[in-house]
Each structure stands twice: as structure tokens, then as C-alpha cells.
């Protein structure tokens, strides 16, 4: 299992989406999110996109006001995770059309559906944007 | 419309939450919303279930408890429609905790959905199962998942593959069922199935060697071909990232090849060509390409040796290391750490660049680089590398200093070529970042200093200078005051000057000054001050001219609010003022600390954590309370008792030596007993278990009392003066010595043990006014526990009221006191008070009982207190 959790956090440090692939209690999650967000948001553009925290490695990327933070195992390929974050953003872009923080908030379940099609149990399932989106589009059509 | 009715839309709720200015407001909104959702759940209203679950997810994401929604998820999953199931499964994955009962409820629904005719519903169930499956569910549902690995739609096959990953992780025994079906997945063309199949294959190889062998034989060539196809594939818009087709698939393939090639020369040979192709042909100007190169390098490093490929890999890392992009440099450092095990020489070539990275502005890079440098250090380069690192220590960030200091100290300790260099480097580190230095590090330094007898003078002068420059670093001050205390005379007289030193003039009062500064500083902690106090005591003997002044400084702390300082102050003052004749012997230089023992203890400090607490209870804090001829060893608490302390950790060892063990457990026992009871009592208490007959006065007691009910009084009297009486006559076994007699009495006579009251009663305490007798019995079946019936008899002509008996025992004993029969003791032996005590001896057979007692009562309304120590218990209790 490579990916341990995926967080989307805005500039103010508020969590906008959280998906964990391992069990943590509510308190642990809150504490972890707080620590990570503080660490990552304090970093400058020039610094590298990886932060080591506890036994995780956090790979993060910023898109406008939204931070995408992915916690991975220590032996995961960090550069590939960066690429994965970009793929996630592009996929959301394709669905929402230039995705923004509000899209994710108001369509939280859809964002989760997309993530579900991309990652299962911490492993990548699918890398083709149209394959990822087809079940979601299907659902939109029928409802 | 009331925004908090159960009909609030998700959007409105989010708006309401976003509009909150404070956390309290937000909590209030969430509380109201949760109440509305609960109400809706109670009404069992299916119309709003979808919306309510969506809201709960949002609330959950904000970090509020949502367990009450769990059953709603199960209901949604059980309903027929796809949209309900969709949100239900999502809720299941997000909201449910690992409480087995609730998960068990969902197993049945999952099973039905895995067999559903609608493939999207099958996909949902697979996804949920893959994310939350427990071991029980894995066993129940593995056959369904196995079947779905061959489902017609690739989108189901890929999910089934990842679901299998979870199943074999939960129940490794199931792995063999999946070996064959997985082999089929590896031949697929669909990228999703391939990438998940490869993941499953990798996990299977890790779970079972059988699988590993199988895939090596059957699938390796196919995998190499797949990788070649992917590398050479024409432009595929759906998977293209920066001109490369599906880098994720590349990476998973390389990862699997790594597992297959590791430890197998043939398999490694088989993949050489394609690895070389990936390493040379991949574009390195985009992140995606670098990700592949990075993975490829790792695979090359892990598989069996092929010189050419390794050179290629190291060159790629060299290019990465000089890249301007911090991300690339970071992964290069990361990878060089792994490469060092394979080819240390090649990594050494990049040493200068790596050292530059230690000074990078980016904390992540610094940390990586520092760890790498640490691995690169050897005997040959330790000096220049340490120099660079200590120089950087001066300018580094505060938050980085901790890591950096720890690493420098470790390097210096490990590779120091000579002691003087070690001391110099440690002095630099302590002056620069002494507050970050761990206790065991400066303890080790003290041990080294103590052992370097030709450097004592040099060291004390160096530390004196450093202390003049800065007195803010805690551990620097500690080592410095220790040195000044020990070697103060060398400081003043410039003893043992080395050629490299510049002579300095320090008067005796200068030396006392710096210690005084330390003791009065507000920034330093108790341990430092306590050490400074000891240093002063030592100086008072070394520098007779300053003795008065030092006494004044010490006396100033007589009223200190800190018990430790107050006690030391009073005790030391008494040593200086009243005990001139022994002072110089008391404060002699510490004996050279044993380096080997220290290192061994440090290394084996793990089990020590358990035993150190019991060790501490046996140690007197600094033991100076005994003015009578206490030898130096006692002063420093160098295991004054026989109780062995070998298992205490390295840190403890030195703390013991320095007498700075401030653990609260040991303080009270030392403070209230030692001065009162005189010299021997405490020592006795400590050594009672180990020495069979330790004090003469008590021996006859035991003898007399234990013989009490068997022998005529005459023999008894005779026995208490052994030389005059033929012992032989009383001893059944014919043993000549008193010891033997005692031993024999307890262990060789089976008769008394049988009838339960094997132990004669003993008068354990007697004063002019009071007698206390103990009757012993053993609880059947528990030899460790002794029941004691205490009988108090009043020998005076007055009545005692408010009679209270208290007892205390050392840690290896447990004491339980029942209430006394009365709190009034009639006069002149006309009545008695009895009280039952239950003592459990955890060291039964090794140590004897011992007890300290205190009896309080009122005599004509005046408080009377009597105290004593009982050590004449019959042996074997």
C-alpha cells in the first residue's frame, strides 16, 4: 500500500476533502491534519514538495488557493505521486471545468467518487481520465 | 425558511458553516445540523437519506463525530437503487470505524452486491471491500473476488485485483488461491487491469516465496516485453503525460521487476537490456520522465550486480544532484542513501555537493543530506567533515540544530581519532548548541575526560574559557562546573600545559566566581545548580583561601525553595563548618570512571528502563547526610549498598556517580530518616537482604526469641554470649557456629512448618514505656505472605490514648495494615491492643523482612512519638 491519505486543504488551512486509507481515530486525524497543514503551508515555492512527518512522507502541490497533500509510505516514488496529484487535478478539471475550492466543497461526494475510481486501498486503479469519469458521467445522465 | 430544518440543502449547510466567524459558532451550527439529521434518521425518512449522508460526510471531514449515521449507511447500501447504494458505500468507507459488529452487518449486503447483475453495483461493492475489508470478511468473500478477477468487463477485473491485494494482506494464507488468476492479468492490454494486476503480483511475491518463484519462471519474460512495449509505444493521448505513455505503469512495472530480480542473477540478466534502455532513453527534462528514471535507478541498485548498469545509475543520480529543481535533488539524496550500501566509493565522489545540500535553505533537503553525510563519514574524512558541520552549526536554523547536533556528536564519538580532538569538538558543540545535546552525550564526555588523565588540565582550562564566553548552554555549564570542581587546582596552577595552549591566569576566586554565576543564574535548571553546588564543595577543600567565601555562597541556599538545593546547602555547610578533618577525604577527585562499563551500559540500556526505578529506591540521594566517617565512595553514592546496580542504564550510572539523581522517590526517604536515625540505620535497611547477619545486637535477639519456646531461659542467656557456652549442645546437627545454628533452625526442622505457626513470637520493640510483640503465621498456599499479629503492651502506670501504630517497608515488600483492636492502651500491662499486619515479600527466600515503625499516642494529653526499626524477624519469612 503506497498512499496512506489524501487531503485537500485551502490556503487558510481548512480541510476541504480528506480520504484516509488506514484507520485513524477522529482525534488522530484532526491532530495529524493540523500538524501537516502547518508544516506544508509554511513552506515557500522554492522549497521541494516533500515533507517528512512522523512516519509519513507528505508530497504536496499547490493549485491556486488549494493544496493537495498526499501522505505516502517512505519507499513510495515521490515524483510519481506529484504526477498523480496533477492527474487528479486534470481529471477534476475535465469534470467541473477549471475546478475550484467551491466545486469540491459543494460536490464533495462527486470528488470522492472520482478519487474512488483512481485509488483503492492506497493503490492506483486507473490512470485514464475518461475511464475514471465514465461511471460518474453515467450516473449524472441517469439522475 | 429556517436554514436548520431537516430540509436544509447541503449547499446551505456549507454556506452556514463557512459564514461562521469562530470555532464556537461553527460547533453550534454543526450541533444543530446533527440534531436535525438524527431526527430525520429516527423518522426513517428515505427521501432525505442521500442528502443527510452527504451532510454527514462534510461534518465528518470537519472532524466531528458522526457515528450515529453508520446505520443509515447500511440502510442505503441495502436499498435497491444505484444512487442510494453509491452514497451508502461512500459513507461506509468514510464514516465507519473498525468496530467489528457494524462491519459484520454489511458482509451480507456486500456478498449480494458482488453477485449483482449490474456491473456498476459490483464495482461499488468491490471498491468498498477493497478499502475496509477485515480478516473475517476476507475469508467470507475471497471466492467471489477470485471469480471476479475473470469478469468480462476490465473495470471490474482491475477493482477485483486491488481487492485481492487487501484480502491477501489480511489473510496471507489465501495468497496461493490468487497466484494463477493473477498470471492471466499480467498479459492484459488494458492499462487499469495491468497496473492493478502488477500491484497484486508484487504483493503476492512479498507474501509468498512460492509465488515469487512462480512469477520469476513464468511471467518475467512477458513483463519485460510489456515494459518494452510501453516504453516504445506510440503516442496515446489518453495515457500521455509529457510525451511519455502512462508513467505510472512504467513505475509499477519497474517495481515488480525489482522484486523479481532481487537475489536472482538469471532474472536480473533477463531485464538488463530493458533497464539500460529505460535509463538511457527516458527524457529527463520533465517530472514524469524523472520519476521513471528514479524508479529505474532504484531497480538497478536492488537487482544483482551488473557493473555497467550501476555506473549508469550513479551517473543519473549525479545529474539529479546537480539539478536546479529541489524535488529532483531531494530524490537524488534519498536514492544515494540506498546506493551507499552498493557502491560507497561512487557516492563519496559527490561528497562536496552533498555537504552543500546540508546547508540548503530547504529543511527537507537539509535533513536528507545530513543523514547521507552521516553515512559517508569514515576515519579518513571525519576531521574535515566535522569541521564543516560544526561551522555550519553556528549559522543554522534553531529547529535544525537538534538534528545537526545529534549527528555531529554521534560522528565525533564514533570516529574520533584521539581524545583531545574529541574533547575539542565536543566543547565546540556544547558552546554552540549545548541546549540540544542529549544527557547521555555529555555523560559520555565526562567519562572520556575522566579517563584522559594527561588532558585534565587542558580540558578544565578550555571549558573555563568557554564558560567565560557563554554561559547559556545548559550542558556546557554542567560539564564545565564538573571539570572545575574536579580539576580546579589544575586550572589555577596551569598544571599539565600543552604546547598548543596559551597560558591563562586564573585565581582561585575567579574559579569560584564562575561556579557562583552558574548557581545563581536564573536560566539554568536544578541539575546544573546541584552540580555547581558539589563543585563548590570540592573547591572549598581545593582552595583553602576561598573556603570562607564558598561557605557563604553555599549558606545562601539554605532557604532555597527547592528541596534538593536546600538540603545540599545545609549538608555541605555542615561538612565545611564541622568536619574539617574528613573534608579533604570526602571531596577527593572522583575515581576514574570505567569507560568499558559505561559503554556496555549505554549499549544495553534497553532492559534498564525497567529496573532503574527499583535501583533508584535503593540509592540514597548523595548520602552526605552521614557525617560519621563516610568514605568518598558513599558521598558519591558509588553503590554504597550491596544491592547491585549493573542493570541501570548508562545515563543512570553517571547520575548515580555524580549524585544528581533527583528522582522524587528517593528524596524523602533520605531526608527524613538519615539525620535522625544516625548512620547505620539506612545502610542496614539497604543491606539487610544481602548479608545474613549484619549487626551484632540483633543477632542474639533472633536467637533468643527463636529459641524461646523450646529452650530453658538459662540456655538462652548463655547463647547471647556465645564464647562462654558450648554451642554444640543446642545444635542438633552439631554445627559449631552461630550462623549454622540459625540456618539449621529454620530450614532443617520440618515440624514447625507443618502446623502453620512455624515462627515463634518475637519482641520486636521494647522501650521503658511500651512493648511490641509480633506473632507470625503464614497464609496457606502463599509462602510469600506473612500474617503478623502485633500486640502492644503498656509498661507505664498511665493510660495511653489516641494510640496509632504506623509501619513502613522497603519496596520489595508490600504491607497491609488492618485496623487496631482499640486506640486506648490500658496502664501497667493490664490489657493490650492488637493489630494484624499482612506482609508480602516479593523477594521471598532472597531477602528477609524489615520494617520501620512509628508509634504515636497521647499521655496525659501530651503527644508522644516512638520510632524504631525492626530487623530481627525470624529468617525465611
UniProtKB/TrEMBL annotation, chain A:
What keywords are assigned to this protein?
A: Membrane, Protein transport, Transport
Gene Ontology cellular-component annotations: cytoplasm; endomembrane system
Which GO BP terms, alphabetically?
Answer: intracellular protein transport
The keyword Membrane appears for this protein: yes
Report whether Lyase shows up as a keyword of the record: no
Looking at the record's lineage, which domain of life comes first?
Answer: Eukaryota
Where does it localize?
Answer: Endomembrane system
CDD domains from the entry?
A: AP4_sigma
Q: Name one Pfam family in it.
A: Clat_adaptor_s
Q: Which residues form the AP complex mu/sigma subunit domain?
A: 3-142
InterPro entries per the UniProt record, alphabetical = AP_complex_ssu (IPR016635), AP_mu_sigma_su (IPR022775), Longin-like_dom_sf (IPR011012)
So what family is this one in? Belongs to the adaptor complexes small subunit family.
Q: What is this protein called?
A: AP complex subunit sigma
> What organism does this protein naturally occur in?
Acer yangbiense
- Lineage, please? Eukaryota, Viridiplantae, Streptophyta, Embryophyta, Tracheophyta
TrEMBL record, chain B:
Domain GAE: start-end pairs? 757-874
Cite the entry's keywords alphabetically.
Cytoplasmic vesicle, Golgi apparatus, Membrane, Protein transport, Transport
The reply on keyword Metal-binding is no
Superkingdom of this entry's organism? Eukaryota
GO biological process assignments = intracellular protein transport; vesicle-mediated transport
What are the TM regions of this chain, as residue ranges? none
Q: Per its UniProt record, what InterPro entries does this chain match?
A: Adaptor_Complx_Large_Subunit, AP1_complex_gsu, ARM-like, ARM-type_fold, Clathrin/coatomer_adapt-like_N, Clathrin_a/b/g-adaptin_app_Ig, Clathrin_app_Ig-like_sf, GAE_dom
Q: Name one GO cellular component term.
A: AP-1 adaptor complex
Entry-linked Pfam families: Adaptin_N (PF01602), Alpha_adaptinC2 (PF02883)
Q: Just give the chief location class.
A: membrane
Enumerate the subcellular locations listed in this protein's record, separating them with semicolons.
Cytoplasmic vesicle, Clathrin-coated vesicle membrane; Golgi apparatus
Topology of this chain in the membrane? Peripheral membrane protein
UniProt function note: Subunit of clathrin-associated adaptor protein complex 1 that plays a role in protein sorting at the trans-Golgi network and early endosomes (TGN/EE). The AP complexes mediate both the recruitment of clathrin to membranes and the recognition of sorting signals within the cytosolic tails of transmembrane cargo molecules.
Q: Which family does it belong to?
A: Belongs to the adaptor complexes large subunit family.
What protein does this entry describe? AP-1 complex subunit gamma
